[in-house]
Amino acid sequence: MDDNKCGTSSTNRDNNQTIATPAEDPGRILSANDDEEIRQFQTTFSDMIDHTCSNSYENIGEFQYNSQDTFRFLFRSIIPAREILQQDFEPESEKNLFNFEAEECLKYSFKVLDRRTNRLTIEHMPVYHKYGMRLLFRGPLQRELLTTNAIRNFFARETLRLGKAFNEPKSRKHIQNFIKIYQINLNELLEPNIQRYFTFNEFFYRKLKVDARPIDNRDDPCVVVSAADCRLILFDNISEATRIWIKGHQFSLEHLFEDEVLAKEFENGSIAVFRLSPADYHRFHSPISGILGENMKTITGTYYTVNPMAIREQLDVLTRNQRTMITIENSYFEKVAFVAIGALFVGSVNFTAKPRQSIEKGDEL
Pathway involvement (predicted)? Predict the structure, then answer.
């Protein structure tokens, strides 16, 4: 399960929604060795998902939960995938992948500033996520392979496959361990009884109690609120964002929107990135009051992970992933573009609000 910037239920494609397909990228030409690297990666990745889809084990996320969260004992804790992982890219994979030095371990963790305490904390992440980051980004060859069409199509296919599995009633068995891994507070849920969720996806896009997230300065049009439970990063302009944080080869507003005219409207605008982790409440809300635009546009794409390590690599994550966008207009800000971006294992976006609908700050989108 990856972090994301969107919900997880099926994409809503009503009469006011348009669908765009970005220009096809031929991708890098592969050598025979590269083909073998991709084959090994796909086999390892797919076999792990096979076990999750078949519900052979209750632990979510390739069933690699390790309560001690220590790399030293990780290999012993991977039950069905152990033999598969031993066939990873290098024969000495156990040594290379799991004997992390403390400094390198932090490289695959994310620091978050907690605004309540004003302290930096390490974002909670199960061991298998750290393993996945190391698997995908530990060398220049692995990072380059991620840009190939073969891997893009593979991520899209596996994400859709897992999404279908999590819509099956038998997937509910994963809920309890998901709560345990991510320490989810059931007291703030509108429905705290997990027996009333009939699939894993139903729990993943769970609702909160009405008063669980108070809206700050609801009547003040100058105040913009967070669009979600998230890890938030803000930039005054696009140039600053690409200089400091967003490193994709082709990141631009034109590529993000697939709309040259709209991109020009926002070329001097600020940008806010609301990143949801798997533990977060996966519904998003309007940061301002206003009127939704006439069209909801879906742009087809792949499903790269959207965690900070990927966004800060030379991957076109934000402009290659499946995404849905709509504008919000009001008299104070004129126009805001809201882009909900899918992610690895969290591929679809469902807007409950409709085009041309009047919304208040904090209303669910």
Answer: Phospholipid metabolism; phosphatidylethanolamine biosynthesis; Lipid metabolism
Instruction: State the Cα–Cα distance between residues 310 and 298, nearest whole angstrom.
Output: 22
254-to-260, 266, 340 alpha-carbon distances in Å: 5, 10, 16
**Mean pLDDT in residue range 16-40:** 52
Going by C-beta distance under 8 Å and a sequence separation of 6 or more, which residues neighbour residue 172?
A: 197, 198, 199, 200, 202, 203
| Token reading at 65 | 């939960």
Furthest-apart CA atoms within the chain: distance in Å: 61
Q: What are phi and psi of 122, to 5 degrees?
A: -90, 125
Rg (CA), the chain: 20
Q: Nearest-CA neighbor of 3 among 207, 257, 204?
A: 204
Say whether pLDDT at 191 is over 80: yes
Q: Within a 13 Å sphere around the CA of 34, how many CA atoms are in the beta-carbon half?
A: 17
Q: Which residues contact 250 (CB under 8 A, 6 or more apart)?
A: 316, 319
**Contact indicator for 300, 22 with CB cutoff of 8 Å:** yes
pLDDT at 129 over 70: no
